[in-house]
Write a structure and sequence with these properties.
Distance between the termini: 58 Å
Helix content: 55-70%
Number of helices: 10
Oligomer: single chain
Mean pLDDT: 76
Strand content: 5-15%
Number of domains: 2
Number of strands: 2
Order of helices and strands: EEHHHHHHHHHH
């Protein structure tokens, strides 16, 4: 299988004031890496809550650069002498878009008062269940149904985190080590999975009541 040839970008060498042709990866290191890290540092809490890591931002920007270059190869809309600056500005816009979406979801999650699963007192599970407690109810009474529902509704990583935590009784530190991600990422994955499961169960209850 032939490997795709990495497209090149023209940038200005400050030392020599000459044009240089660099590949996408090198362009990212020279022109975009500091900007991406700056955004990640400023919005670390928001990104962490949504399970977004620094490498996720990097991959998103690299993919965007490839797509812009691929499209420009057809249209020739952006001159080679200006493509470097165009990509830098596009990187800033993309980061702003990612921050905006992540921040919106973060605020919505906070407003819904979604609890950190590590802090749910055991006694709450034994109280009268409201719609928001459906997840705990299924977990307590029918783990097989929960397992099937988790695999159907959640992403592979979300399901893996839930299974390791609830079914295999592993703690967050062990799960993070096994999945080779941060503890914050594990918590975010499980939080997202629980929200999906709760919403699904709530929808089913609503439909059942409508049929009564």
């Amino acid at each position: 299988m032939r490997k795709r040839k990495e497209p090149t970008i023209t940038i200005k060498d400050i030392a020599t004031n000459c044009d240089l042709e660099v590949g996408v990866s090198l362009y990212y290191k020279i022109c975009c890496r500091k900007l991406v890290f700056k955004y990640f540092s400023i919005y670390r809490n928001v990104f962490s809550s949504q399970g977004i890591e620094l490498n996720d931002l990097k991959q998103d920007i690299l993919l965007m650069i490839w797509e812009i270059l691929k499209e420009n190869k057809k249209t020739k809309k952006i001159p080679s002498s200006k493509i470097g600056g165009y990509l830098y500005n596009a990187t800033r816009r993309q980061l702003n878009n990612i921050v905006s979406k992540a921040n919106t979801t973060y605020k919505r999650t906070v407003s819904l008062n979604v609890c950190n699963i590590d802090n749910i007192p055991q006694e709450e599970v034994n109280e009268n269940k409201s719609q928001s407690d459906i997840f705990s109810d299924i977990l307590e009474k029918d783990k097989d149904s929960l397992l099937k529902l988790t695999k159907r509704l959640c992403t592979e990583k979300e399901a893996m985190a839930i299974i390791k935590y609830y079914f295999r009784k592993k703690n967050i530190v062990v799960i993070a080590d096994e999945m080779q991600i941060t503890k914050q990422r594990v918590s975010a994955l499980m939080k997202q999975a629980i929200l999906k499961l709760k919403n699904n169960c709530t929808e089913q209850i609503t439909k059942s009541k409508e049929l009564e």
